[in-house]
Amino acid sequence: MNLSRDAYEIRLLMEQESSACIRRLKGSGGGVTGGIETGGLGGPGTPEGGLPQLVLKLRLRVLLLARVLRGHPPLLLDVVRNACDLFIPLDKLGLWRCGPGIVGLCGLVSSILSILTLICPWLRLKP
């Protein structure tokens, strides 16, 4: 459940960052034709679209995600901690087999990040 909350927060912040970036571009006079939000030139039905356009959109999304997570350290720590917490029960239930070293490392990382959020309250994700 915590990962779904993190995904929701990430989506909201990515939308805010994307709209702020578009506003900055429009304000500076650089028009955006065929941007990531508008679908771009050469959509899936046109001959000039295809895989390169999809790769470009994916690359822009990953860069936007990195920018959002870099700007919000509490969200980054919460995502990493919750992702580490996910592997332990998946291994015990036999749904995702990984070695005991990986399970131990995930537990260690999760515990260290939890202690870090207790020591530095500003790193705690606010609901």
TrEMBL record:
Keyword Transmembrane assigned: yes
Pfam families on file: PEX11
- Top-rank taxon, per record: Eukaryota
Q: From the Swiss-Prot or TrEMBL record, state where the protein is found.
A: Peroxisome membrane
Mark the transmembrane ranges. 102-123
Q: Which UniProt keywords apply?
A: Membrane, Peroxisome, Peroxisome biogenesis, Transmembrane, Transmembrane helix
One GO cellular component, as annotated? peroxisomal membrane
Is Transmembrane helix tagged as a keyword? yes
**Where is it predominantly found?**
membrane
Its GO biological process annotations read:
peroxisome fission
Q: Which InterPro entries match?
A: PEX11 (IPR008733)
Name assigned to this protein:
Peroxisomal membrane protein 11B isoform X4
